[in-house]
TrEMBL record:
InterPro entries to which the protein is assigned, alphabetical: Cyt_c-like_dom, Cyt_c-like_dom_sf, Cytochrome_c_Peroxidase/MauG, Di-haem_cyt_c_peroxidsae, MauG/Cytc_peroxidase
Alphabetical UniProt keywords: Electron transport, Heme, Iron, Metal-binding, Oxidoreductase, Periplasm, Peroxidase, Signal, Transport
Pfam families associated with the record: CCP_MauG
PROSITE patterns documented for this protein: CYTC
Organism: Candidatus Brocadia sapporoensis
Record localization: Periplasm
GO molecular function: cytochrome-c peroxidase activity; electron transfer activity; heme binding; metal ion binding
Gene3D superfamilies to which the protein is assigned, alphabetical: Cytochrome c-like domain
One Gene Ontology term, aspect cellular component: periplasmic space
PTM summary: Binds 2 heme groups per subunit.
Binding site for heme c 1: C72, C75, H76
Associated pathway: One-carbon metabolism; methylamine degradation
Residues that bind heme c 2: C217, C220, H221
Protein name, UniProt field: Methylamine utilization protein MauG
Length: 348
């Protein structure tokens, strides 16, 4: 009886999701892929034009770093898909290689959790991390506040936006507000889903069916942002200075999270090579071949990763589909704050 009720219920859910306009998914119970909804703005950090403008200035300002040399844009550069094009970061005072790949800022507004291991919940919480990280911008918040308080443009802008002097909280809120404007939408895939049948090539359309069928990508890369916002171990081989990266386990200490990383979005994926938490794969071809062969080796590998038996044509079709997920670039225009060395106020 319980089983009958359950299967009746899941039948209804499946039916509703199918009717919602998802084409030919073999896995109708996963949240359907489709155009992005509007960004959710947190109640305690409403967007205003002046705040976004201030966040943009801070984002591009190297004075947020210990040697006044590294800005957020050094590693999340708009012309490199808001990433850095490197397998792993080069940061800190000696440009030392770190263990992880810089993810893109594009569409981070849609992430439930930030970082490869999900250790920050919101963009506000995330923004102050890299400033203080010894391997990234190696600065203290006190020092940043002191430096920016010596620059009249910033003092004026903080007064206008927050009604206060320069504060760490304001820096985080303004940067997060700017990041929420970095949304690339209207990709060929989005236009196709909105009824433009010519927006995607025949190969991409076949790739979309494979994505939701034989290739099983939809099991993890689902919903409008192509991520379940969960963590999985797919067996990416170690590479770079870390012999082992335990990923999500470092946050939860659950054995089952060993080597698990956040499912990244696949939107704008053509802009953000190399791929994976450690930048192991230079191209999408190598990524798809990796999945096709059943992923990597790991004791803790997800049961959803297994050999796929895709033909050469099918591998190409999947790649063509992923290429159709790249949206329109957001043009960034801003007036930088003059790069004079700040006059540090006496009372600090
Ligand atoms: C030296 C390079 C570097 C600098 C500078 C840097 N980041 Fe990052 N950023 C990274 C790396 C690497 C990660 C992933 C780290 C991890 O997951 O452990 C990351 C992760 C992020 C994420 C999470 C994205 C996601 O999808 O999970 C956001 C948002 C972000 N950075 C914003 C910023 C902002 C804002 C600044 C400036 C205040 C900044 N970053 C400065 C390298 C950098
Ligand atoms: C079991 C869940 C799961 C399945 C199934 C899955 N992925 Fe992934 N995918 C992930 C996770 C987790 C990562 C990040 C892994 C890491 O960095 O260690 C990832 C990373 C990627 C990346 C790199 C993204 C980036 O920004 O670096 C691409 C591309 C990708 N997957 C495509 C696919 C395709 C195509 C399929 C189907 C053939 C697929 N995935 C199936 C969970 C999954």
């Amino acid at each position: 009886m319980i089983r009958a009720t359950k299967s009746f219920f899941s039948g209804i859910v499946g039916l509703i999701l199918t009717i919602q306009g998802i084409y030919a998914s073999d896995f109708p119970l996963f949240p359907p892929i489709g155009p992005l909804p509007p960004v959710t703005i947190p109640a305690d950090n409403p967007q205003t034009e002046a705040k976004v403008e201030l966040g943009k200035k801070l984002y591009f300002d190297p004075r947020l770093s210990g040697n006044n040399w590294i800005s957020c844009a050094t590693c999340h550069n708009p012309v490199l898909g808001f990433a850095d094009g490197l397998p792993r970061i080069l940061g800190g005072p000696t440009s030392k290689e770190g263990g992880r790949h810089s993810p893109t800022i594009i569409n981070t507004a849609y992430n439930d959790l930030q970082f490869w291991d999900g250790r920050a919940a919101t963009l506000e919480e995330q923004a102050l991390g890299p400033i203080q990280n010894p391997n990234e911008m190696f600065e203290t918040l006190d020092n940043v506040v002191r430096k920016l308080s010596g620059i009249s443009e910033y003092v004026k802008a903080f007064r206008e936006v927050f009604g206060t002097g320069v504060t760490a909280d304001g820096i985080a809120k303004a940067i997060a507000a700017f990041e929420r404007t970095v949304v690339y939408a209207n990709s060929p895939f989005d236009r196709y889903m909105q009824g433009d049948v010519h927006a995607m090539s025949e190969s991409a359309k076949r790739g979309m069916d494979l994505f939701q069928g034989k290739a099983e990508c939809i099991k993890c890369h689902n919903g409008p942002n192509f991520t379940d916002n969960k963590f999985h171990n797919i067996g990416v081989p170690p590479d770079g200075p870390l012999k082992e990266d335990l990923g999500r386990y470092n946050v939860t200490r659950n054995e089952s999270d060993k080597g698990a990383f956040k499912t990244p979005t696949l939107r704008n994926i053509t802009d953000t090579a190399p791929y994976m938490h450690n930048g192991f794969f230079p191209t999408l071809f190598e990524v798809v071949q990796f999945y096709n062969g059943g992923g990597g080796r790991s004791e803790n590998k997800s049961a959803d990763i297994h050999a796929l038996n895709l033909t050469g044509q099918e591998v190409n079709d999947l790649i063509e589909f992923m290429k159709a997920l790249t949206g329109e670039m957001v043009q960034i225009k801003y007036q930088s704050v003059p790069l004079a060395f700040p006059k540090v106020p006496k009372n600090f």
